[in-house]
Design brief:
Elements lengths: L2 H23 L11 H11 L1 H15 L1 H27 L2 H11 L1 H29 L1
Helix pairs in contact: 1-3, 1-6, 3-4, 4-5, 4-6
Length: about 140
């Protein structure tokens, strides 16, 4: 496997894993609450639902890059207005809310674009391999 294909294969996966870990860190705030151990575990599980959904999307994208890439783009763009509104209502700052969007949802749009791009690059290289082996 060429270096460019290897990079194309692993870059979206690594960025996606790091982005999911970043989103998962927000679930750790449940440990600051004055709850019993089991209440904290249930709250942690509830807060990790978005990360589990993103992990399921990563598994889909790992197997089917094109489908997973499209799903990541849709999720990243689709959830942005909700995240923006929620943050704008809390802090009343357009620029801070925009920065939060860039930190939370934009990486998933980038990951989706990378998955789709890699799909087509790999497809193109497979066609070149078939043409050169038939010649």
């Amino acid at each position: 496997m060429k270096t460019s294909i290897r990079l194309c294969h692993w870059l979206p996966r690594i960025i996606c894993i790091l982005s999911i870990l970043f989103v998962s860190m927000f679930a750790l705030d449940v440990f600051e609450l004055k709850l019993t151990f089991w209440q904290k575990m249930i709250a942690l599980l509830m807060h990790l639902i978005p990360s589990l959904i993103l992990l399921a999307l990563l598994i889909i994208a790992w197997k089917w890059e094109y489908v997973g890439g499209i799903l990541f783009i849709i999720i990243g763009i689709g959830i942005s207005p909700f995240v923006f509104n929620m943050n704008y209502n809390m802090n009343h700052s357009f620029w801070l809310s925009l920065g939060i969007i860039l930190a939370i949802t934009f990486p998933f749009v980038v990951v989706g674009i990378l998955f789709v791009t890699c799909h087509f690059i790999k497809k193109k290289n497979q066609k070149k391999g078939l043409k050169s082996s038939n010649a």
